[in-house]
Amino acid sequence: NFTKPSVDIYNSLPICNFSILNNDTSVYKVIISQTLHSYDIIEQRYGKNLYPGGHYIPQECRTEQRLALIICYRNREQHLKMFLDNIHPFLQKQQLDYTIFIINQNGNDQFNRAALFNVGYLEAMKLYPYDCFIFHDVDLLPEDLRNIYKCGDQPRHMSVAVDKFNYKLLYSTLFGGVTAFSLSDFVGTHGYPTVYWGWGGEDDDMYLRVVKKLKKSITRYPMEIARYKMVRTHDHTSGKANPHRHTILYSKYDYNLDGINATNYTLHNIEFYKLFTLINVTLTEEP
Ligand code: BGN
Fold first, then answer.
1. Taking burial as the number of CB atoms within 10 A of a residue's CB, which of 117, 212, 274, 287 is the most buried?
2. pLDDT at residue number 2
């Protein structure tokens, strides 16, 4: 389990209140590092105040939220290194209590991004009282410090403007890339669907869960803030598109029957590295 600073000292701190009101680009524009650094270098730079498992708690103030940053992952080590090299300084500047969870899918089945997110949620909740969940692709890097990684009273689509798509939103209900949910909103959607194997559709399904199950609308930060760089590396192979995605999405199946509680997986191990917690699983399909 994760440690917390002594209660007495902690309670006397002012509340963390990071915000940027300044209009000076140099204050909020992130200089993204695309150099491939070793874990050692990244640890030296950003690991100083990390608790085991990539858990950071600001020293100078008291946080109101505890963020679990859940990354779905398989075989993309270059992306992972770049992600860690950029996301740690970003979140530390925002004065957040955060933990980086890497959810690794074992085996050769089609990738199941959404089921991995549910695993991240379930395993994170066993470790620390998280109340904010951000589900994140490993190849997206935030470019603006005003894009604050906190949860509000509506689910938020974070990756609105991505360089690969010329910083334009592809369609108005797009809910892929990076999303943020308070604990109660996530539970209220029943979690991500588990039946999407391979690329596509799972994020659209989650969008429908927000609207139809949770009965809320999604929110977004302004386009000029919610900007991301999608990194390209040599070890990247996209999964195969799921040929059944339209059928499942439009079948209007009962969301109560699929979601967090339907996530079938074998947990192989959890490792608390300096820069992240690795949760290694095999996902199993319902017979
Ligand atoms: C959409 C995909 C999303 C993906 C975005 C952006 C589908 C479902 C079709 C019914 N949706 O087309 O999953 O995030 O593109 O790439 O394929």
1. 117
2. 63
- Given a contact cutoff of 8 angstroms between Cβ atoms, the answer to whether 221 and 146 are in contact is yes
CB of 236 closer than 6 A to ligand 1? no
Cβ(251)–Cβ(193) below 8 Å: no
Residue 199 carries which DSSP code? B
Per residue in 24-36, pLDDT tens? 888 999 999 999 9
What is the ipTM for the molecules in this complex?
0.89
The atom of ligand 1 lying closest to the CA of 202 is 13
**Beta carbons within 10 angstroms of residue 255's beta carbon:** 17
Q: Which atom of ligand 1 lies at the shortest distance from residue 200's CA? A: 13
Strands, E, within the chain: which ranges? Answer: 50-51, 55-56, 66-73, 97-105, 132-136, 140-142, 156-157, 161-162, 178-182, 219-220, 227-230, 265-272, 277-283
Confidence of residue 50 (pLDDT cuts 50, 70, 90): very high
Q: What value, to the nearest 5°, has the Cα angle with vertex 54 and ends 51 and 55?
A: 50
DSSP code per residue over 74-142: SS-HHHHHHHHHHHHHHHHHTT-EEEEEEEEE-SSSPP-HHHHHHHHHHHHHTTS---EEEEE-TTEEE
Backbone angles phi, psi at 83, to 5 degrees: -60, -50
